[in-house]
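## retry 2 of 3
previous attempt timed out at serialization; input unchanged, resubmitting
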Amino acid sequence: MADQIVLYETRYPAAIITLNNPDHRNALSSAMIDALMAAIARAEEDRRVRTLVFTGTGSAFSAGMDLGELRTILDQLRIDDSGKVWEGALRGEALIERVYRLGKPSIAAVNGIAVGNGAGFLSACDLAVAADNARIGYTDMKHGIQAGLVILHLMRLVGERVARYLLLTGELVTADQAKALGLINKVVPPGQLMDSALAWADAIAMNAPKAEAITKSLMCKFSGQAIAMTMTEYTAAPHISDETRSGLESFFDKKPVPWSLKPS
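## retry succeeded, writing output
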């Protein structure tokens, strides 16, 4: 099981889907996204599964997009001033959209750090419980990567003022701070994380399935920010640029980014 990038376990009425690449802090690589999509489809097809629970192994829930994979891709690309759409980023955003529009409820059991698209992933879930040592942040712009669909879900949860603060500063907030802001529902000690998520799954299983599915669909429909921009409209925006290349080079070489005003 250690070589499986995503683990799938049923504890009915829940399916537990675990991001299992701790050496890379469960980054959302192409392989990880494919495996998550397959696990989601499996859970949706199982009538005994009423709730999908997402969590991670190791110290991270997810570190967001795989910067190492992006660096490799950048070496193969020629980027002009208008930038270039990175298909891998679009696939990551398709995953977030898939989770948000699931017919069955979803729970993020946030075991550790969640940044960038990892934070976007948890924000797309219906409910979120976090271990008290978890940290959440939107740090992509520090590496020259613009925020995308995560903006919509962040604003949907916390409002524009807080969203601007989190996106523009890139600050990592504690689990308690995230709860106060509305990013998550509950904070527990790490040892109680899965029990808390499964208790919610048991409560959800008491809902009438058809009524629940209709209610979830209506919540998506009535959530203004979440439907204000479609995936089709967003794909026109470039995801990577010359700043991305410079930012990643600085990250991997452990040097200041070129746009930093701090002395090196």
